[in-house]
Amino acid sequence: MSTQKIFAGARIRRIRISKGLTQTSMADGLGISPSYLNLIERNQRPLTVQLILKLASVYKVDPEELYGEGTASLASLREVFADPLLSGELPGEHELVELAEATPNAAAALVKLYRAYREQAERLTDLSDVMASGGGTVAAPRLPANEVRDVLESRPFHFASLEEEADAFHKVLNAGDDLAAALKNWLQQEHGIAVRVLPVSVMPNWRRRYDRHSHRLFLSERLSPADQLRELAIEASLIRMRAAIAAEIDALKLSSDEARRLARFELARYAAHALMMPYAAFLNAAERQRYDIDVLAARFRVSFEQAATRLTTLAREGASGIPFFLLEVDNAGNRIRRMGAEGFPHARFGGACPKLAAFAAFAEPGRILPEAAEMPDGERFLTISRTVDGPHAGFDARPRRTAILLGCDLSFVGQTIYGQALSRASLETPLPIGRACRLCERQGCLSRAEPPVTRPLGLDEMVTGFSAFDFQ
After folding, report:
1. For the residues of 32-54, what is the DSSP string, one character each?
2. Is residue 349 part of a domain?
3. Which residue in 132, 154, 250, 388 is a FRET match for 332, CA 20 to 30 A apart?
4. How many helices (H) and strands (E) does the chain have?
5. What CA–CA distance (Å, rounded) separates 114 from 143?
6. CA 196/CA 180 separation, integer angstroms
C-alpha cells in the first residue's frame, strides 16, 4: 500500500450516496465519528490505511477506486485551464482535483469540448494561411508543416537513439580537428560520393544538392564554413543513420507522407548537430564555460545558431544540462522555429510579445542581449537574444537576418555566464512581458499592438491611456 496521502472526499461521498447511507450511518460502520467523515468528504483529512481496509471489508469497496480517476484526466484539465483564456479562472490546483474527482464525466466532456475548440482554431489558422496565399483546399486537420512543428514542440527535443548513433559514427570517423575532411573522405571511400562547392551562378537556389547519377554532392559557396559542415553532416547522417531516423519518424506518428518528409529533414539536422558537437564533450564544455555560446561555437567550429540549438538538446537521462528553449523570429514577428528540452509552451511563453529582447536585437546586430523576464502568471525566465545571418547574399540581394532567443527558467541564471551581466535590480524585478498582445491583460503597456480578446475595449471619450488600445 502506498504511503502517499490519499484525499478521496468526492469518491467516498459517491460511494456513500450510491449505497443510500447517511454520514452518521456510514461513520458508524467505519467506526469513526460523523464529523471526521465529514472532514474526509471535504478533503480536509486523508484516508488512512486502516480506513481503506475498513471500507473494503464493510462496504466491499475496491481499494483501487480510492486512488483517483487517474492522472490522465487531471493532466488534461491542466491543459485546458493553462489556455490563456482560462489561466486566471482557478485560484489553485485543488479545484481541478475536485472537478476531476467529483464529476469525472463532466470533466471528460469539458476536455473533449476544449480539444474540439483547439482543432477548429488550428483549422481556421491553416485555412486563413491557404486563402492568403491565393486559395486552395486544406486536405487534413493540420497542414504538414504545422503538424511536424506541433509534434516536435510538444515533446522534449532529445532523441536518444540518434545521439547514440552520432557518437558511434564520430568514433568511426576519427575526425580529430577536421570533421569536414573526415566526412568528405568517408563519403568518398564508403559511398563513392565526391563533394564540390559550386558558385552562386551555377547553384543559385540550393544550399545542397546530391546528384545521384554522377554521385556528387554539391554545396553552395554562399554558405559559411559552419553551414557547409552541417550540410555535409546532414547528408552523411541520412546515409549512415537512415534506420534510426526512420524509427524516430515512425514514433512521431505523423499523418501524411509530406509530414514525414519534413520530419526526416528536421531529424537529419538534429543528427548532424549531434555529430558536429558530440554529446558528452559538448555538455562538459558547456558546464565548464558556463554556457558561453560564443566560446562553444569557437571550440566546436560551429556557428552561434548551431551551438545555441545544440544547447536545447541536452536532456540525456542522468547527464542533462540546463533545460533551454529556443525561439527564432524574423523582424516582422514571424516565428521561424521553436524548440527546447522543456518545450516552449504557447500557454506560458508564446514568444510574440514585442517587448522580448529578440526584437530589440535587430537594432544591435550581432550583440548578445541577456535579460530577465516575467510572465503575468509569475514565471520568470533568463533570455539570451542575438541576431544571426543567413547565407551570404550578393550585392543585389537583401540578406536574411533572424533573431534567436535562447531561454531557461530564471533559477538557472547563476549557472550561466550571462547572469553576471544582469543587475540585482533586474533579477529582483524582471521585465514584465506577455504571451501575445491578444492574450495579454497588462494595463498601460506602451508596446501593445492589439487589444486583448479577453476584455472589452474601454470606450471612454474623457479618458485615454498610454496604450493604443485601452480596455476595461
Report:
1. S-HHHHHHHHTTSSPBPHHHHHH
2. yes
3. 154
4. 18, 11
5. 20
6. 12
The CA distances from residue 40 to 34, 92, 411, 472, in Å, are 10, 20, 37, 42
Q: Is residue 359 part of a domain?
A: yes
Element (H, E) at 316: strand 315-316
Q: How far apart are CA 377 and CA 397, in angstroms?
A: 43
Q: Residue 114: how many CA atoms within 13 Å on its side-chain side?
A: 18
For the chain, the maximum distance between any two Cα atoms, rounded to a whole number of angstroms, is 91
Tell whether pTM > 0.85: no
Return the residue matching grid coordinates 556528387.
Answer: 216
Quote the CA–CA distance of 102 and 389 in Å, as a whole number. Answer: 55
Number of domains in the chain: 1
- Tell me how far the alpha carbon of residue 105 is from its chain's centroid: 30
Cell numbers for 93: 490546483
Residue (of 220, 180, 223, 175) closest to 196 by Cα position? 220
User: Residue 408's domain is classified under what CATH number?
Assistant: 3.30.450
- 424 domain residue, yes or no: yes
Residue 422 lies in a domain: yes
Cα(124)–Cα(64) distance, integer angstroms: 43
Q: Yes or no: say if 328 and 145 are a contact pair by the CB < 8 Å rule.
A: no
Tens of pLDDT, residue by residue, the chain (472 residues): 445 567 777 778 878 887 888 888 888 888 898 888 888 887 788 888 888 888 888 887 777 666 654 444 667 777 787 777 776 676 566 677 777 766 777 777 788 788 777 766 765 665 555 555 555 544 445 678 888 988 888 788 999 999 999 999 999 999 888 999 999 999 999 999 999 999 988 888 889 999 888 899 999 999 999 999 999 999 999 999 999 999 999 999 998 888 999 999 999 999 999 999 999 999 999 999 999 999 999 999 999 999 999 999 999 999 999 999 999 999 888 888 888 755 454 544 544 788 889 999 999 999 999 999 998 888 899 999 999 999 988 787 888 999 999 999 999 999 999 999 999 888 999 999 887 777 788 887 888 887 777 777 766 666 676 766 776 6
